[in-house]
């Protein structure tokens, strides 16, 4: 199969929280499948003998002591909308 | 018959000074959006820095819950788009949870059962969202506070086991100084998974979120069992969904569909290098674990403290620390436990106070218990001294002197008082002669009234009986 199904595209769009129209769906069916094919190639590599690499460096046990620093940054300055000391956004919980 | 199977996930905020991956302050109740920095907000280009206390408390939790500790760990990113986490992923542990295969023992109706723990892992909290009318308010003070998530296997059979598990877990985390486990402030939060099945194979599970108290856990389990039973009996298939507990209606309500499993696209967090935990580190943490509730209960039982007193003692960690310090100083443990639970704890509970906020000091308690133990004061006078101390502070001996509360133990003094009482209560004496033993109690009461409770009860009782017998035998 050379393209994803419409449902798969809609599912990915839903996870990314973006709206897609019919034209987008036709385009993404193919494009996303191409990306998937590349990932499949990576999946074919045999890594049974390899240790999992989580960081390009070999550092181990890097941490800081538990001391707090108060920066007193005014984040409301960067918020599109605020309400008292809160950041206000569109209601996102719908039941 | 349909059998319920329950699993519980608990999130607890850890008692650290700073956040999990940033040096912002870990605190509750401050002005919104003040205890934050660019890392907590997920600004582009920021990097997390791992707090050592998160690892220490993670290891400690694994130890107190009898888990196998994973010696080589890393963190993972859990990806999702939601306003409570603006960097679009939560740093958590998916592949290498700090602890696996633990348990908590619960006891009820004579049954002992180990509630098995699947795994515990460390992660960061999200921001707090408050939903109002058509908007949502965000407070990032909570974002990045270190959490420990404790997940049981699906092994809990009923609401009783669930409540006991949570109560025990709460006590363990509190006593070991891992979390302050305040459910009402959100520093301990519970989610449930419930499924029903007639066979040993598990049924379709329903997740219940947002349960705000341990009693609501019991209620939501009972409600959900009823709801699912009805559906199954009507032949309707249970769908895998997330519901939330609604306190107002005492029901569970369907929530929006959420991402599951693969949708989170977990992958190792590349910005935090691997952590290797060696035996030396574990040994160091072990040394910081104090005596936990189950061991304390055993210890108190051996010292002769009764079950009811033990139960109320365990509810207050401060008093337990105090009691144990005093036991070290050789005070009578039973008398001390009684004073702490009967007089001090009730005062504290009524006023929502901690022991160190009271006027009474540890030395005061020691003095009172020692005097009680040596029969220098009666328990009634002890009560009077404590209530005086609670109101006005002070020194035990001073109060005794000032208020003339010293116990009367001198036989001659007591005999005078007893004879007066007897002469004024001829009827009670006649009753005694006719074999009515309870008149001793009445006469004792009169002596106590006369002496404002200062008469040494043991000596008075002996003298009183002796005097009554004397009158009976000599027909006086």
Structure commentary:
The complex is a heterodimer of chains A (95) and B (476). Chain A is mainly alpha-helical. Chain A has helices at 6-15, 22-44; strands at residues 82-83, 86-90. Chain A has a domain at 1-47: Histone, subunit A (Orthogonal Bundle), CATH 1.10.20. In chain A, 35% of the residues lie in helices and 7% in strands. In chain A, helix 1 crosses helix 2. Chain B has helices at residues 52-64, 159-175, 214-233, 279-287, 293-302, 307-314, 317-328, 333-351, 362-373, 379-392, 396-403, 411-424, 426-433, 438-450, 457-473, and strands at 3-13, 68-69, 72-73, 76-79, 89-92, 99-108, 111-124, 128-132, 135-139, 146-152, 188-197, 206-211, 242-246, 251-254, 267-268, 275-276. In chain B, helix 7 packs antiparallel against helix 8, helix 8 (333-351) packs across helix 10 (379-392) and helix 9 (362-373) packs antiparallel against helix 10 (379-392). The chains are: A mainly alpha (95), B alpha+beta (476). Chains A and B meet through strand 2 of A and helix 1, strand 8, strand 9 and strand 16 of B.
């Amino acid at each position: 199969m050379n393209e994803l199904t419409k449902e798969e595209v809609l599912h990915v769009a839903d996870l990314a929280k973006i709206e897609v129209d019919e034209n987008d769906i036709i385009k993404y069916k193919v494009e996303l499948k191409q990306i998937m094919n590349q990932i499949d190639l990576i999946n074919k590599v045999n890594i049974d003998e390899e240790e999992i690499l989580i960081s390009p460096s070999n550092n181990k046990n890097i941490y800081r002591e538990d001391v707090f620093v108060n920066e007193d940054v005014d984040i409301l300055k960067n918020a599109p909308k605020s309400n008292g000391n809160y950041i206000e956004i569109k209601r996102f919980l719908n039941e | 018959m349909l059998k319920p199977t329950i699993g519980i996930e608990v999130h607890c905020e850890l008692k650290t000074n700073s956040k999990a991956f940033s040096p912002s302050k870990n605190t509750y109740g401050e002005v919104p959006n003040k205890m934050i920095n660019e890392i907590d907000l997920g600004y582009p280009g920021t990097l997390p820095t791992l707090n050592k206390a998160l690892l220490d408390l993670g290891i400690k939790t694994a130890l107190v819950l009898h888990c196998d500790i994973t010696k080589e760990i890393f963190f993972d990113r859990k990806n999702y788009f939601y306003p409570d986490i603006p960097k679009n992923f939560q740093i958590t542990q998916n592949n290498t949870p700090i602890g696996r295969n633990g348990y908590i023992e619960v006891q009820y109706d004579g049954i002992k059962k180990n509630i098995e723990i699947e795994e515990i892992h460390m992660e960061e909290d999200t921001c707090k969202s408050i939903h109002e009318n058509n908007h949502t308010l965000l407070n990032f003070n909570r974002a990045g506070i270190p959490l420990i998530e404790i997940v049981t296997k699906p092994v809990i059979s009923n609401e009783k086991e669930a409540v006991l598990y949570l109560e025990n877990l709460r006590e363990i985390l509190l006593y070991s100084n891992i979390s302050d486990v305040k459910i009402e402030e959100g520093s301990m939060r519970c989610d449930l998974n419930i499924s029903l099945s007639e066979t040993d194979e598990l049924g379709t599970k329903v997740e219940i979120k947002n349960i705000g108290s341990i009693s609501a856990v019991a209620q939501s389990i009972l409600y959900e069992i009823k709801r699912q039973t009805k559906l199954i009996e009507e032949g309707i298939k249970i769908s895998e969904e997330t519901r939330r507990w609604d306190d107002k209606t005492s029901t569970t309500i369907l929530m929006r569909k959420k991402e599951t499993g693969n949708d989170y696209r977990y992958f190792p967090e590349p910005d935090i290098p691997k952590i290797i935990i060696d035996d030396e580190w574990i040994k160091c943490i072990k040394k910081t674990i104090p005596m936990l509730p189950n061991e304390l209960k055993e210890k108190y039982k051996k010292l002769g403290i009764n079950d009811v007193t033990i139960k109320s003692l365990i509810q207050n960690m401060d008093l337990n620390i105090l009691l144990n310090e005093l036991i070290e100083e050789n005070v009578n443990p039973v008398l001390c436990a009684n004073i702490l639970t009967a007089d001090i704890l009730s005062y504290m509970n009524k006023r929502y106070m901690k022991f160190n906020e009271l006027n009474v000091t540890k030395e005061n308690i020691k003095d009172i218990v020692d005097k009680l133990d040596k029969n220098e004061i009666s328990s009634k006078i002890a009560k009077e001294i404590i209530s005086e101390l609670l109101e006005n502070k002070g020194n035990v001996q001073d109060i005794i002197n000032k208020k003339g509360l010293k116990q009367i133990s001198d036989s001659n003094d007591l005999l005078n008082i007893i004879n007066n009482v007897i002469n004024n209560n001829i009827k009670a004496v006649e009753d005694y002669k006719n074999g009515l033993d309870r008149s001793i109690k009445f006469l004792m009461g009169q002596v106590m009234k006369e002496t404002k409770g200062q008469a040494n009860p043991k000596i008075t009782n002996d003298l009183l009986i002796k005097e009554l017998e004397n009158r009976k035998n000599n027909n006086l």
